[in-house]
Write a structure and sequence with these properties.
With 231 residues, the protein is mostly beta strands. The protein is 15% helix and 39% strand. It contains four helices and 15 strands. A hairpin with a 7-residue loop joins strand 3 and strand 4 (53-70).
């Protein structure tokens, strides 16, 4: 066998053994309602009654502080400081982890939302571009998480609802922090089960939350229980 082909064969064999990719790893961010992947135009039954339903038209959020800890305890931060996540835009349904071999990751961490310094700086570009519909104004800052749709329980004439969670001033900050130990199981996707958050919503009494404050702060805290890591 010629030296060139020997070298190529060894390179391929070596990469197969160690299972390493050539660069950072993209991880899908998925939205579910219980065991169903959320799809456009679909209605889902609420836990209150089989007659009560919800259609989820918009889900968007901003992720920040994405980092992984490797098996040696070293922390690697993602090159992108922020990620814009959009349910209905496949180009904005993933994050990029700053490590080439997912088997070397001990834990992953990230936040839903933006910190006070980012909000004080005003509108930016990239994932924070106002064109994504996640920026209120300089005095209110960014919307960290939003969900819009239709529910049979909403008292609006068209049964619509809008929940825009933001706010960076104490005591009503809405940024939420997450950390998950992978326990050598790896990670194939990050999954958000919105049914767990929707159980806290009062569609009949408060179908719109559009400003920072106590209600947005409380609802943001309940996002913590919605996310799981898929091995």
């Amino acid at each position: 066998m010629k030296p060139f082909f020997i070298a190529i064969s060894l390179l391929y064999f070596g990469s197969s053994i160690f299972g390493q990719s050539s660069g950072p790893v993209d991880i899908p961010f998925q939205f579910y309602f219980r065991n169903e992947r959320i799809a456009a135009g679909e209605y889902y039954h609420l836990s209150t009654s089989v007659k009560d339903s919800i259609r989820i038209d918009v889900v968007k959020c901003i992720l920040s502080n994405v980092a992984v800890t490797d098996l040696d305890g070293n922390i690697h931060f993602a090159e992108n400081t922020f990620f814009f996540i959009d349910l209905h835009d496949s180009s904005h349904c993933k994050i990029t982890l700053p490590i080439s071999n997912i088997d070397q990751v001990r834990s992953i961490q990230f936040s839903i939302g933006t910190d006070s310094l980012t909000n004080i700086d005003g509108a930016r570009g990239g994932a924070l571009d106002p064109m994504h519909g996640m920026y209120w104004a300089w005095h209110s800052g960014y919307i960290n998480f939003k969900m819009e749709g239709v529910s049979s329980l909403s008292r609006n004439a068209d049964h619509s609802f809008q929940y825009h969670l933001g706010g960076y001033l104490s005591p009503f900050e809405t940024i939420q922090h997450f950390q998950f130990d992978l326990n050598q199981k790896g990670i194939s996707a990050i999954r958000m089960d919105l049914s767990k958050w929707i159980d806290y919503l009062d569609f009949a009494g408060k179908s719109e939350v559009m400003t920072p404050g106590a209600i947005a702060h409380e609802l943001a805290k309940h996002l913590i229980g919605t996310i799981t890591i898929q091995p």
